[in-house]
Here is the input.
Amino acid sequence: MRFLLIAFCIFTLTSCDYFTVKEKETTSSEIVAIVNTDKLFREDLKNVLPNNISKEDSIVLVKSYIQDWAIKKLFLKKAENNSSLESLQEIDLLVNDYRESLLINKYKTEIINQKLDTIISEEEIETYYNLNKDNFKLNEELVKAKYISFDKDLKNEKEIIKLFQSDKIEDQEELERKQLSFKIYDLNDSVWTELDKILLKVPFSKENLLKKTKFIQKQDSLSLYLVAIKDILPRNEIAPLSYIESKIKQMILHKRKIELIRDIEKIIVKDATKNNNFKIY
Here is the structure.
């Protein structure tokens, strides 16, 4: 530790240009600190200091960096000295395996990015869905519903309720124009939605919302809630295609990725065998 402080003082007195990380006629052979046989060079610290930093802050930051570097090296040496040869060999194997996995996965990712066909037709999605319907059973209830919530003292409450109950397109459009008056709302009852998500927003029981109804309302101390349930799908029913279309796309892409990598593996083995780079004895 005493050596580190001496090294640091020598370093801080050499030049103010260092602390602003300005280019200067110097070489990377200038040593800042030494721990056993490991050396920290001035060049190694070039990216430590941010721009426009004061000299005082530079000193603190560099001192902290040198200290951390030294502690890491000292710990590493202690760990090496106190580990058996078997342990060190095991670590080396793990490091090598990890390096190989990183390289291989990076190469596979590059191949996938370059060669994978990501265009999926509606016909392919529908075919996949029809062939695997039994795998798409629902784990939750789905509903097609619309709901709104607004202040219970809203002056045009009756008008909003009338518009909400109406099936006329012009009334629905008028209701949408009033959405700034609503605390929460979803007026799109043409898509399937998880019932549990709706229950988080409106204070109805699940039993209330598992019935087709054009209109139910509820009031608490602050708000009035309106809900209409257009359609229901209970648990264990086959999920509708529209609800799981994005999931099917992901599954098709995943299948294509696996097939692409397998094809590449076959080509690599074939080429290696042809060129006598791969032999089995």
About this structure: The mean pLDDT is 87. Residues 35 and 70 are 6 Å apart (CA to CA).
